[in-house]
Queue: 2 jobs
Job 1
Amino acid sequence: DAMVIQNPRYQVTQFGKPVTLSCSQTLNHNVMYWYQQKSSQAPKLLFHYYDKDFNNEADTPDNFQSRRPNTSFCFLDIRSPGLGDAAMYLCATLAGVGTDTQYFGPGTRLTVL
Amino acid sequence: GENVEQHPSTLSVQEGDSAVIKCTYSDSASNYFPWYKQELGKGPQLIIDIRSNVGEKKDQRIAVTLNKTAKHFSLHITETQPEDSAVYFCAASQGSSYKLIFGSGTRLLVRP
């Protein structure tokens, strides 16, 4: 059974049009992560949550925001997508309490026209 | 901060041969080293991991070795099969937030 679910799998938006990607996890873990992965590159951490505490990476652009309404769900909002934001967006969580094993979702492929 | 270097960037082997991918890390405080396999259009899948108190770990055809003194760790795949073809990422982690720092990836091609 899938532990990290991302919707949609593919998202097309227009330049400058806000878009929201969603992630849910069945492990009920208090930590969730959002990564950006551009073509032929490694995943790059954008931010993570520890419960509702939001932790932004220093180089994450202000254009990227996130919401976590409850333990299971997390959203990535891109306020004004540019062509350079086209990428795979990956959500991840930890396997259990006290473990550092991260499980990733299948990702959402974002295209910006 | 932590930096992880991964080599080679591409690796082509004949089916049945072994494949070795190597990573080095810079921060001696890193204590957790996972390896992920990523197939085209999919999310990374954890295939094996090792912690700093262990020197080697094996799971069927896959093994990982860790040399803390030299700060490097390696993935070994024996008896490779075409379905092993994918991009492999190493990573290092430390601290309570368990943030992963990834290597740049290795594209493995197993030729039938």
Job 2
Amino acid sequence: NAGVMQNPRHLVRRRGQEARLRCSPMKGHSHVYWYRQLPEEGLKFMVYLQKENIIDESGMPKERFSAEFPKEGPSILRIQQVVRGDSAAYFCASSPPEGNTEAFFGQGTRLTVV
Amino acid sequence: AQSVTQLGSHVSVSEGALVLLRCNYSSSVPPYLFWYVQYPNQGLQLLLKYTSAATLVKGINGFEAEFKKSETSFHLTKPSAHMSDAAEYFCAVTRGGYQKVTFGTGTKLQVIP
């Protein structure tokens, strides 16, 4: 049973480009969470999704950031017109639908904006 | 709202010495509390969790933590540090279940041979 898979592991984008981060949850998991880790900081919650629904996006920046978790395929975190301040590690976690079971984390995507 | 505060962004211990990483929480409802470990360039691995059952929680790799409501604390301990314990440790809280976990800023543990 593969763990949470994130790709790419490393992503370099020039200012103004788009970044697309992918997360494939563990088999059987229908809940996905995205977190951002800025240098020397803890993880900050961004968004919580279930299949085809955004449940809680209170941690998402109001502009340029969006997330989806379609019925088929991985969850996507999309950052439009990236700026240097978007450079961070982005972690995805998933959990099963039962609710009271721990979330498992992927290894993260490290985004560098140059 | 809930939050956690980790005291000490860097902790150094000698190999074989006691490890003590401090975490205090704030929560308006009975919390779920967690400790995660992150090795360089890796994701987070759950060490242990408190979910309102036993107040002394044992986790993997010999770590344990005690929930103390009166002190709003959930400190992580290990009797004898190993070199392999060198990593960053995050305390985290949620109000129930595993959604929207709030993390502390982390404590980097250095183990000195």
